[in-house]
Amino acid sequence: MNQRSSPSPKLNTLLQPLLNPQAPVLASTYAPIFQFLTGKNLLKQGQQMHAHMALRGLRPTAFLAAKMVAMYASSGDISSASYIFHATASPSPLLFNSIIRAFSLYKLSEKTIHMYARMHSLSLRGDNFTYPFVLKSVTDLYYVQFGKCIHGSSLKDGLEFDIYVGTSLIDMYVKCGELGDAHKLFDVMPLRDVSSWNTLISGYMRDGVVDLAKELFENMPKKNIVSWTSMISGYTQNGLVDEALRLFDEMLSEDSEVKPNWVTVMSVLPACAHSAALDRGRKIHAFAREKSLDSHPSVQTALMGMYAKCGSLADASWCFNRIKLNDRNLVAWNTMISAYSSHGHGLEAVSTFEDMIRAGLRPDGITFTGLLSGCSHSGLVDVGLKYFDSMSTMYFVEPKHEHYACVIDLLGRTGQLVKAYNLISRMPMLAGASIWGSLLAASRSHRNLEIAELAAKKLFVLEPDNSGNYVVLSNMYAEANMWEEVNHLRALLKSQGVKKNPGCSWIEINGKAHLFLGGDTSHPQYKEIYKLLEELPEKIKAAGYVPDTSFALHDISEEEKVYTLTTHSEKLAIAFGLLNTSPATVLRITKNLRICGDCHTAIKFISKIYGREIIVRDVNRFHHFKDGLCSCGDYW
DNA sequence: TTAGGGTTAG
């Protein structure tokens, strides 16, 4: 054995028989050694034992081969594992199990199923160690029909009472979208354990059937940490972030033996990210640190995502830097690139991408979505186009709809509307609402009515309920004094019963979110808020601000328009923030729509007059206002 | 051996 490693006492005992050259060479000597080396990442030692064995002329039996396959597979050498299997003349069920587990572990799903088929053709029975791995591969490949056959075979093999097989079958049905079959099986299972319940719960959550998941959760006889975590992540994934946070608290307050682990922490963080709850996120970070759950790279990545979405790019990059270079996987790099993009730091997104390539990682589609949107937000046209071209030629990532969307946005923002339109017609897939929406927005800011009409017509079909599209086109018609068209659109809007998507903004103060709708008068402090906002125009007018009423719908008087603008939800939230925080506090506002142009101008002035840093997250990106300027450079 | 997880344009 390798002298440099310090063999454990147990290994020393196992190695003893090998030190005697007179002793017979037996599989029973080597088997426990390979078993010991399994799962410990000791490939070199394993290879040495394999060589030692070969030198003494021992050919592995099926039993020994099974142990060797397990050792090689667990040490990262799947090709040697496969070689051992194929070199063994008559594989036993144990050896089949070993290779099936190995292939399934490496996501070689086709091979896993092939091995099961071969086992079947040799009339060898599968057992409770065979089926769970075969079913996992069936699930990965979405082979429901085949899965049903496997279900039948497992019954024939007498495994209808086995909890592992039963739970794996439920999981297979759930992940292949057959929830009815999953629940039917669950109902007739003679024995269930907490995993069987958890599998079904996560299945309902995955399908968005939150009520049934909740009912199961409440009725299950015993809950473990996976049950709680499944519910928390299920709530988050279904947009019920308050429920997720509430359940996390409930779990902590319950005086049970259930202790959150790193997966739990990772599952609750997106809830903070979603609702921009920075204080809450920081508290969870502190909790994770206290319980030593923060060192896992995936937790650091989830923290990065949370900080980036809550407006703190500095904290996000701090977390990124804490992940050791070797531990930075694709998701971590992607998260950092997207964080820079959404905050308008296109150049940093580009340099992070280059660092990632130098670190030897292969980018995927998500990497390019982040990179290209970063170029778009920062106006890096040539750089963005260059990366778009390199996607398939250098990195073998086929551009998908979202990548075209980024590039069309990139061209549109810089006023290259015809080029953008031509690219749409050359796309290998049909352009969806995001692409036409981006082109419409670009046509509006570059005042190109012809292309706006083209884009809007597509949008009226693709998303007839989105009132924003009607408003943009109607305003453009009004600016061009095309009143007949304005009336026509208004009639269309009415006849289709389209409701305006209400704008809302919220601000977090001392961990509590305060939500405002446009024109909201329901807040207890609304009188003070409106007073401040009414005084505001005079104050900021003195500094040079002119209200831009083109962002209000053109069917009301000029004064009314100014008033509508004054009461936009983001302005209400900012006014509330100014009234309720100390002068040095950064105001962090989140808006459910895109920030309007007039608010953008007004907030720049507010940041100067009040000497406040204001960070606004809209649906697309972040705007950092400071000293009369915005980080987007008015380029959005 | 089965169950829970982080990144994505507009």
Please, could you describe this protein's structure?
It is a single chain. The chain is mainly α and 636 residues long. The protein is built from 33 helices and six strands. Strands 2-1-3-4-5-6 form a six-stranded mixed β-sheet, covered by helices on one side. A hairpin with a 2-residue loop joins strand 1 and strand 2. Helix 16 packs antiparallel against helix 17 and helix 22 (365-378) packs parallel to helix 24 (401-413). The longest helix has 17 residues, at 526-542. The radius of gyration is 31 Å and the shape is elongated. The relative contact order is 0.04. The mean pLDDT is 91. It binds one DNA strand of 10 nucleotides through helix 8, helix 10, helix 12, helix 14 and helix 16. Residues 544-636 form the DYW domain. PPR repeats lie at residues 193-223, 224-258, 329-363. Pfam families: DYW_deaminase, E_motif, Eplus_motif, PPR, PPR_1, PPR_2.
